[in-house]
Design a protein that fits this description.
Elements lengths: L1 E5 L3 H12 L3 E5 L54 H4 L16 H14 L6 E2 L2 E8 L4 E7 L2 E7 L1 E4 L20 E4 L13 E5 L3 H13 L2 E5 L5 E2 L3 E2 L3 E2 L6 H10 L15 H27 L20 E3 L2 E2 L2 H14 L11 E2 L5 H5 L4 E3 L3 E5 L2 E4 L4 E3 L2 E4 L36 E3 L4 E2 L4 H16 L9 H15 L9 E2 L2 H12 L5 H5 L2 H9 L17 H8 L7 H11 L12
Parallel strand pairs: 1-2, 1-7, 2-3, 7-22, 8-21, 9-10, 9-21, 10-17, 11-16, 23-24
Antiparallel strand pairs: 4-5, 5-6, 12-13, 14-15, 18-19, 19-20
Helix pairs in contact: 1-9, 6-13, 6-15, 9-11
Family: Belongs to the FAD-binding monooxygenase family.
InterPro entries: FAD/NAD-bd_sf, Flavin_mOase, Flavin_mOase-like, FMO-like
Organism: Gordonia pseudamarae
């Protein structure tokens, strides 16, 4: 088929690659001057980059008063909130002895390498903005504007990969009468423009955590205003590892399958076979105990795995850090614990709100550089802002970390009911367009990466278009069931309809339909592979071992590149839990 891809960020790049793997003809439209999406900056990422200008947008004009639809870009100091192992694609995995966090420019370089390796750039029409998508009897018509010239072109199918960062959400009740400077985090480049000023930061997401720290360090006074608490997850574990190293299938299944009475809607390795499930879980007990015993023997023999001398940010592992430049002190840790207790009022073990995988702002709260106000904004008048707890303060500037409007994520005839991607199959396949339209990249795992989710969505879509995968006939029923399940497990983040509680379970379900999920019997008959997949750190290379466009031994080798040394106690705990009463809480055993 001839397929239009809108957007050349990470989701668009992998969509082009997966579509071409299935033999489709692809044309990609992107409004930027180069590939990379929000990671690409025209002001610094050209072939001959000049000095970064943090106060300018892609056109070189001051962001104040410009078209804010065009200004969303990654800021100067940005580090990934998950490791490169999780942000990489399964057909071009990150190669390194340790999980590390890339900077904005490093990740952009990875995307360029990916595009070069697979000849993706030849499909991209840069500086070409899609303005309309029209459904026709035979497919879709794409209207685009390039250098002031408008063109229309017909396609058999479309994949919208432009992401959620389109129109900043600026409609914040209570700030209508504020006369100081108001900018959105999408315009933020660095903190210099706030030096010596009184600044109010509204909202807190992962990027907001960085902004709070940076602005707090240079501002005369800084207040963080929030209405609710997001679950905080430090990026560094045990001084030397990325926290996502602890994303383990057995743990995820225990948390979502056995710690809740809510019906589990997805299938896993064993499908719906009671016999397969029994054999699989029996193997998990045997192999889990064996893994723990082997680890104990290694320790007694003095053959423990060597620990890295650097943390995932490239800093010395000693003194220990929780995050980038965030010391692991009692005060910082207690602040995180207090924050998380407030974010999870029901005290459940299974988190039901989105995570903020960035705690770099915590020291700023502890040392008083930033003052927290969780009452919410009541109103404003001139430079004065009133809070609902009765306090008032004067500010020179307000920074909005308030996300983006959902309706602008879609275009033309490609609309989604209630602008809610949970009304699509698996968040991406449109039920009303006979498998010819997909919205790829609007899936945000609590803990995990968007790129691999987009890749698996694109693999699914590409096979639907090539006729090798049939869309389920009971699509509406499945969408309704999965939507209800997700809403249950994300109940504390009701506005974030793109959120999914588990990347692992979501991807395994997609892989099962695509045909690239490892068969249960293959795992049971191969103890080493079973232990790595079930008790080891999640690695998306598991989806390239079997099935279409697999990498065979190369994928297996990448899977084994990370030893299961830090999974030994998880293996023991989870093997015991398989035999525990369903109502037993994991903390009763661990």
């Amino acid at each position: 088929m001839k397929v239009a891809v809108i957007g050349a960020g990470p989701s668009g790049l992998t969509t082009i690659k997966q579509l071409r793997d299935e033999g489709h003809e692809v044309v990609c439209f992107d409004k930027n001057g180069g590939a990379g999406g929000i990671w690409y900056r025209d002001d610094v990422d050209q072939d001959n980059p000049g000095q970064d200008n943090p106060g300018q947008d892609v056109a070189g004009q001051d962001v104040a008063g410009t078209d804010h639809h065009q200004t969303t870009k990654a800021y100067d100091s940005l580090y990934l909130t998950i490791s490169m192992k999780m942000m990489a694609f399964s057909d071009y995995p990150y190669q390194g002895p340790q999980r590390v966090f890339y900077t904005r420019s490093q990740y952009l370089e990875y995307l360029r390498e990916y595009a070069d390796r697979f000849g993706i750039l030849e499909c991209i029409r840069s500086s070409s903005e899609v303005t309309d998508l029209t459904r026709t009897k035979s497919g879709w018509t794409v209207t685009a504007r390039t250098s002031g010239t408008e063109t229309r072109e017909d396609f058999d199918a479309i994949a919208l990969c432009s992401g959620p960062f389109q129109t900043p959400n600026r409609d914040i009740p209570g700030l209508e009468n504020f006369t100081g400077e108001i900018i959105h985090s999408g315009e933020y480049r660095d903190a210099e423009r706030f030096r010596g000023k009184r600044v109010l930061i509204v909202g807190l997401a992962e990027s907001g955590a960085d902004l709070v720290r940076e602005v707090g360090e240079v501002a005369q006074a800084c207040t963080l205003s929030i209405r609710s608490y997001t679950w905080l997850l430090p990026r560094v574990f045990n001084s030397t590892k990325s926290t996502d190293n602890g994303t383990v299938r057995s743990h995820v299944h225990e948390m979502l399958r056995r710690s809740s009475e809510y019906p589990f809607v997805y299938e896993s390795f064993w499908g719906r076979s009671a016999v397969a499930k029994f054999l699989f879980l029996a193997a998990s007990v045997v192999y889990g105990v064996a893994t723990t015993v082997a680890a104990v023997v290694r320790k007694l023999l003095g053959k423990e795995f060597a620990q890295p001398k650097l943390n995932p940010f490239g800093a010395p592992a000693d003194p220990p850090m929780l995050d980038l430049n965030t010391p692991h002190t009692d005060e910082n840790w207690e602040m995180i614990r207090t924050w998380n207790h407030r974010s999870q009022p029901d005290g459940s073990w299974c988190q039901r709100s989105i995570f903020s995988k960035n705690v770099t702002f915590i020291p700023s709260l502890v040392n008083g550089q930033v003052v927290l106000n969780d009452a919410g904004i009541d109103g404003s008048d001139g430079a004065t802002v009133r809070f609902k707890d009765g306090t008032t303060h004067d500010y020179d500037a307000v920074v909005l970390c308030t996300g983006y409007r959902r309706t602008e994520q879609f275009l033309g005839d490609l609309t989604v009911k209630d602008a809610n991607v949970r009304n699509l199959y698996k968040h991406f396949l449109h039920p009303e367009h006979a498998g010819t339209a997909a919205v790829i990249g609007l899936t945000r795992p609590f803990s995990g990466g968007v790129p691999i989710c987009a890749e698996m969505q694109a693999r699914y879509f590409a096979r639907v278009l090539s006729g090798k995968l049939s869309v389920p006939k009971d699509l509406d029923r499945r969408i309704a069931a999965e939507k209800a399940w997700e809403e249950h497990f994300t109940a504390l983040s009701p506005r974030h309809t793109e959120a999914i509680p588990s990347q692992v379970i979501y991807l395994d379900e997609l892989a099962r339909e695509i045909g690239c999920l490892l068969p249960w019997w293959k795992l049971v008959l191969n103890p080493k592979l079973f232990i790595q997949v079930w008790f080891g750190s999640f690695n998306q290379s598991c989806y390239r071992i079997v099935g279409p466009h697999n990498l065979g031994k190369a994928a297996v080798d990448d899977l084994y590149s990370e030893p299961v040394e830090n999974r030994r106690f998880v293996a023991w705990d989870m093997s015991v839990l398989q035999c525990a009463p369903k109502r037993m809480h994991p903390r009763d055993i661990m």
